[in-house]
Amino acid sequence: VPHVATIAVSILFDGLAYAMFLFITSVGLSVTMGLMGFVNLAHGAFAMCGGFFVVSLTRTLGIGFVPSLVIASVAVGLISIPFERYLYRRLYKSTDLEQVLLTIGLAFMAIATFTYFYGPIPKSVPLPAWLQGDVSLGFRAFPSYRAFLIVLGAVLIALLWYAFEQTNIGAKIRAAVDNRRMAESVGINVDRLFTLTFALGSGLAALGGGLAIQLFGLTPSFAVIYLVLFLIVVAVGGLGSLKGTLLAALVLGIFDTTGKYLLADAGGFFIYAVVVVVLLIKPAGFYGRE
Amino acid sequence: MKLCRWLGLAALAVAVGGQAQAAEVKIGVVLPYSGANADLGHQIDKAFDLYVKLHEKDIAPHKVTIIKRDEGPPTGAQAKTVTTELITNDKVQLVTGFVFSPSAIALAPVITQSKVPMVIANAGTAWITNLSPYIVRLSFSMWHPAYPMGAYAHDKIGCKTAAVAYTDFPPGKDSVEAFKTGFEKAGGKVTLSIPMGSPVQVPDFTPFLQRVKDAHPDCLYGFIPSGAHAAGLMKAYGELGLRKAGVKLIGPMDLIPDNKLQDMGDAAIGTIVMGHYAVDLDNAENKAFNAEWHKAYGPDSYPDFMSAAGWDTMHAIFDTIKKLNGDLSDGAKVVDAMKGWSTNGPRGHVMIDPATRDIVQDEYAMEVYRKPDGKLGERILGTTKAVKDECKVLKVGRCAS
């Protein structure tokens, strides 16, 4: 029987890796919802799109996994700009229902399009040798890919934190989230700011999609089946809050892993129990404004 | 020109058909064409289409009209709606397909009442065939591979202890119970049982398998629906280094569906499954089946056990149309005509057990290895002949009624 501490460390490690995936994929959704109050259910579709780009880049064009992740994220970020400019923008002042209808429609169209080109069979990606196998930390070996996820997540968090807290653009975004009209009246171009954050969020979603292939396999329906998870992270974290999204991803990732390890019979129930408890105590999420 | 050909054909039909009345047989096909499990539907759909295309002429002067409907998610609700519509509005004489057990279970009362036979091409929960006298199954029961795997794992693979991990829905529980029954009868011991969430979403399998690794049994018997779950489970198994840690992966053939095997990579090598089909099965019918498949769908598309069952399903339906001379209006007669039907198909010799209306087929123990051409393949280690659904033979739980 393994030692309790070893079990705790391995749960923490797996939970952390899972949390990083949740954070990377959800943070864009949180910012767009917080900034414009726009319900973007097509967020998962951008993630799925990024995943398929990574599949094509690595398998058809023979580009390495890590460069493919970068290319796919940038490409999806750019592709998302016309969507924001010409489709989303029309509905910023509409009701939630209209926004939901537009974006869920886009998600279904994306699923059909990608099924047409890639088929419904789950795809995998070839990983470089250094991402296969495991790394040993003396007392226990950890899968390299998950270690990579954790490191990448930490780097991204640091970058995003710096961009949001320390740069001029970050300050403008925070100002616009807090009080849009005030931000506009002091001369901040909120429209352009939003296009920028939207592209950034979609690009990060695409990165998450690319990273998810190795975790879950990738099929076109990725666009909707994991959407619930992303929405949960956003709701628990609080709209538009970087800190909140991170905390929510960590709590949910670690609780989910712990529940599955220790009490598999209760299965996926844990994550929902956490959501209920958090939202009962803080209806706007960890860092949301009530 | 076209008209001439039609006239010619018509004349020919009259001349050849003579007294035979050309009948139009309406068949409803219900498979998941959308959503996370669409690829399962496609595997069977392709086999259906291929069989119809190649054998349409065999049932002349009769013709089949196939109406396809989306089975939807593995909950049974949508399947029940569309199948009821097929029966009441489209007046189909037979329904086939059905990937998910909940679909077949939800529909059983409708089938009994309407007397429209349901010919199952996949759904594998053992007791489904007991739910209605109008259900015939060409695919398998979860017990077909899982029960013989129990004794094989203990006697031949050398598993003294085993963990079982399964997707938490009826076929998963069925498969695990069948394995456990066979395994413990042979003297093995199941030390850990882990349900791994619902079939709707592919979970992160790591926490489940980490637990297995820490418990360190000789073998891990896994059951997952053969779609995206299969790839996910194999990834987690490889990533956590369970094989290196001495935990062998065994299970039914759902673990390594042929159309996903090439993507699974080295992690899959050494996996031993029990199943009734693999593209590498060495028989003439299977070689011909594979050749036709690649001709129709390209060199990178592979049939799998679902496709093989789909092929035999359409074969049985066509033989029944011939036997009844195109008259499928009486459901009871259709079912009677199918009882005892047998053929040599891609899976080898198969027969419909007249007593249970379930399939009787050979089960093969197969090991994944790397073939000389660099692709992954399955090597046959042993064969159990003419396996019946042991759940009904042993009268376990709901299989008794």
Fold topology:
The complex is a heterodimer of chains A (290) and B (401).
Chain A: H1 4-36, H2 43-60, H3 65-86, H4 96-118, E1 134-136, E2 141-143, H5 144-166, H6 168-178, H7 180-185, H8 190-216, H9 222-225, H10 227-237, H11 242-262, H12 269-281
Antiparallel strand pairs in A: 1-2
Helix pairs in contact in A: 1-5, 1-6, 1-8, 1-10, 1-11, 2-3, 2-4, 2-8, 3-8, 5-6, 6-8, 10-11, 11-12
Chain B: H1 2-17, E1 24-31, H2 38-55, E2 63-70, H3 77-88, E3 94-97, H4 101-114, E4 118-120, E5 135-137, H5 143-157, E6 161-166, H6 170-185, E7 189-195, H7 206-215, E8 219-223, H8 228-239, E9 248-252, H9 258-264, E10 272-275, H10 284-297, H11 305-323, H12 331-338, E11 342-345, E12 348-352, E13 359-370, E14 376-387, H13 390-393
Parallel strand pairs in B: 1-2, 1-3, 3-4, 4-5, 6-7, 6-8, 8-9, 9-10
Antiparallel strand pairs in B: 10-13, 11-12, 12-13, 13-14
Helix pairs in contact in B: 2-11, 3-4, 5-6, 8-9
